Amino acid sequence: MTTLLQTLSSVRYSPGRTFLTALGAALGIATIVALLAVGNGARHSAGDFVHLGASDLALFQKDAADPTTSVLPTSLIPEVRRTPGIADATPLVLLVEDVPKDPSAIVFGAQPNSFYTSRLVFGAGHMFSAADQIVVGDGLASQLHLAVGDQLKVHRRPFQVVGIYHIGIAYQDSGAFIPLRVAQSILGRQGETTLIGVKLAVGTRPAAVEGTLSHRYPGIATIGTPEEAARLGANGQLISNAALVIAVLALVIGGIGVLNTMMMAVIERRSEFALLSAVGWSGPQIAFRVVMEGVVTTVIGAALGLLLGVIGAHFLIDALGAQQFVAPRVTAWDLGRALLVGVLIGVLGGLYPAWRAAHLSPAQILAQR
């Protein structure tokens, strides 16, 4: 307790430098927390994106950069349906950035009688029955002030709104559905689909069907959980890798900042450390005190960084206009990891200054005064 009080007293010795060091650590920690929160939100949303609330499994093209770039032939669907344990399979085409009034809206090309569309609950109107008709989610309808009978352009094509639905899934409620063939025509991919949704028979184990499909179709990724969805393509690892890189950079840059601060403190307080040594403090005791000062400084910064990171994650999502699809998710494990980085910064930054302080010669320092 005495050592801690002495450490806090030493931190107040140079409040300006301590504040700047803590602020540097806070910014690094805030960046880590924000990336982890966005990454967790993206992984959670990926599960909803893959399943869309209806399918048990989803088939994508393996190694696609992200789910929207997947391309599969619809000729696979009859074969998939004949697989033991599968009750039904249906194609789904995804159109992104094709609604001029709301580029973030996703338009789904689907068959009107599929198990996907059968779950749409219409608050107004009905399912489309013609090539020039569209049904929109209540979220998109509210945002664009659409009602049954209005027109909505998709990829420069006018569609008549014949229904407004709600399903409780952000991607769909903020999007729209058009006939599958029309979506294929817009993409210029007749006979192709973005994904194949699979509905399992009652009592079927997903893992068994996943193994069968993966063996039969090695070029297809069979996704059954949100974690698998997050690993689907190159973009699925982007945020996780970015968080790792930022964490390493925070350790390096933050450690250098703390090192500089603690070295300056050691130089300015040589007489103090010499006196401590003269009255009986051992080298390890002095070194421990210096390291503790670094840790206390960075923990203060880390505490501020945790708060800034949570706020920053929501600000980042809002700035990108992705709040409809990704909600930042901050877990206790994420906060713990970020706090651990803060402690490591303090330890790494204080090691060399602590060694220097422990090896100061009391006779030489006091003789200079």
Primary descriptors:
369 residues; two-stranded antiparallel ribbon; 55% helix; elongated
Q: Taking all residues together, what is the mean pLDDT?
A: 78
Report the end-to-end length measured between terminal Cα atoms: 32 Å
Roughly how much helix do the residues carry, as a percent range?
A: 55-70%
Biggest beta sheet attributes = 10 strands, mixed
Rg over CA atoms: 29 Å
Which blocks of ≥5 consecutive residues have pLDDT under 50?
none
Question: Can you count the beta strands?
Answer: 12
**Class based on secondary structure composition and strand pairing:** alpha+beta
Number of domains: 2
Strand content: 15-25%
User: Topology as H/E string?
Assistant: HHEEHEEEEHEEHEHEEHEHHHHHH
Principal-axis shape: elongated
Count of helical segments? Answer: 13
What are the SSEs and their pairings?
Blueprint: H1 2-11, H2 15-51, E1 57-61, E2 72-73, H3 76-81, E3 86-96, E4 106-110, E5 121-125, E6 133-137, H4 138-144, E7 151-154, E8 157-166, H5 170-173, E9 176-179, H6 180-187, E10 192-193, E11 195-200, H7 206-216, E12 220-223, H8 226-230, H9 234-268, H10 270-278, H11 283-320, H12 332-358, H13 362-367
Parallel strand pairs: 4-9, 6-8
Antiparallel strand pairs: 1-11, 1-12, 2-10, 3-4, 3-11, 5-8, 6-9, 7-8
